[in-house]
């Protein structure tokens, strides 16, 4: 890993300046305030604005296909996060669009891809069901063949941004009698199809997600992605992308881990806490002069730095685990006013630590729970074998 500072060429410096100006124009205080209120992690004006400037296409494509160079991609990812861009819907859209480009028939890809890159078509993930999401292959939502189409019935939990998307990448069961990994078929279902009902749901951090019901939803076979009962092959590609399974390069320019945008929020909260405890209070004292405060703040910074340096799946776990550990510590250092959320009069740090505290719960659930990631690390990276959750063997009495 190369940690040296990158010297920007004039062109790259101009790109960074333009990008910052573009984000400052699009991601206004009003956009951020509205996003906080709606919890949608999406803003259509911002999304279309970035699409119109060709930035969605540049992010989607490899450099060889006209996309960002590695350096510009790094700048793009950092600036998007720094600007607090409502952004998660692009993550699901791009992830599914890569799968569509790889597995869908040409006609469907031609129907969807231009709109994805312009920002007019958004795609969401319909995997999780009311009975469970970690083991997605236990899917119960049924798709039954009906002439040249399929009839879909079932329910999905947590289909984030379904209400802002045009298609859902839907996991269905097409062979309930078959072994679970041979029973799945994927569809890209238009969300304006009759029989689909979207119900909003808010989480503890204010995120808006959805329950989506499918009642006799008729979908043409051309919306199928991949083989019938071959959905697991398609899902694996999408899940690998979601889990951050990616090849690392040694130039230090790669996004180090999934959810590094969350790490930026954590870093802001640490900075703001440091500013508050370093300021002189009305009594003329600074809280930072108390050794206990120095120790607790220093320990939080050290933990955060360790999380920021952890790559791939390790980073995914370390970032969220550290958010969970240090957010209460920061709030404690801030005192009672640290409990107040953003834009509340009297909030110690404008709610930064409080937000990280609430965000850290769901962040360790979506895209795979921390426990599941820890098991993946144990199994695939450390070679410890699969965990065994069976009850302890009965002792046989002599
Ligand atoms: C804000 C938010 C947005 C989301 N957005 C989407 C979305 O857009 N699309 C979508 O399809 N899903 C989405 N999800 C769902 C998310 O992917 C699931 O919540 C997650 O996969 C966990 O599934 P579950 O909630 O059903 O918990 P379960 O799978 O029922 O797990 C319950 C508990 O058991 C533990 N557990 C389960 N299996 C194992 C195991 N093998 N080893 C160790 N522990 C285990 C879990 O860690 C957890 O603590 C979202 C969730 C949230 C909170």
From TrEMBL:
One of its GO terms (cellular component) is plasma membrane. It comes from the Bacteria. InterPro entries: Acyl-CoA_Oxase/DH_mid-dom, Acyl-CoA_Oxase/DH_mid-dom_sf, AcylCo_DH-like_C, AcylCoA_DH/ox_N, AcylCoA_DH/ox_N_sf, AcylCoA_DH/oxidase_NM_dom_sf, Mycobact_Acyl-CoA_DH. Residues 124-212 form the Acyl-CoA oxidase/dehydrogenase middle domain. Residues 10-119 form the Acyl-CoA dehydrogenase/oxidase N-terminal domain. It catalyses: a 2,3-saturated acyl-CoA + A = a 2,3-dehydroacyl-CoA + AH2. It holds the Pfam family Acyl-CoA_dh_N. It is an enzyme of class 1 (oxidoreductase). GO terms for molecular function: flavin adenine dinucleotide binding; oxidoreductase activity, acting on the CH-CH group of donors. Its cofactor is FAD. Keywords: FAD, Flavoprotein, Oxidoreductase. The keyword Oxidoreductase applies. Its EC number is 1.3.99.-. Belongs to the acyl-CoA dehydrogenase family. This is Acyl-CoA dehydrogenase. It comes from Mycolicibacterium chitae.
